[in-house]
Fold this sequence. Notes:
Radius of gyration: 16 Å
Strand order of the largest sheet: 1-9-8-7-2-3-6-10
Shape: globular
Helix content: 25-40%
Structural class: alpha+beta
Distance between the termini: 47 Å
Number of strands: 10
Number of helices: 6
Largest sheet: 8 strands, mixed
Order of helices and strands: EHEHEEEHEEEHEHEH
Amino acid sequence: MTGVQTCALPIYTPIAAAIRNARQTIRVQAYGFTAPTILDALGEARARGVDVRVILDKSNDPATRRDGGRDGGKLVGAQFTSAMGIPTWIDHSVAIAHNKLIIVDGKVVIGGSYNFTVSAEDRNAENVTFIESVEIAELYGRNWDGRRAVSREYRPPRIYDLDPMDSLARR
């Protein structure tokens, strides 16, 4: 890939392909984060030694989700990335961290209207742009570093921190 490429639905396939082609680093900033194809590709990248790091909006923190961080019984958002050993931060410092960005190997920037969600793929009109540019990736990388600096590291709840009555009430 060189220069700029745009993409409309289906979007998850080229995003997952870019993630699968990563060799060194992946940085993600996401508002919605439930797309299994993208989540799985990030987990696979981590498993093959790519340095994957993620910043998510507070809506991805299971403590703030009505479904406890599960979508149809599958782990999503911070619970998924944490379970995969991916360092994850929650950006609680703004009303909405409405970012939709992936930086691959410090040279490819993926972003657009597309939330990394099943809904975005199945129900919405969305777009994404792939930009191959070290200079632009550096600019977005600095922004990523700045957002991480004001975010809190995600730590999954310990089993003894959970209220069993709350769990029963959700059933």
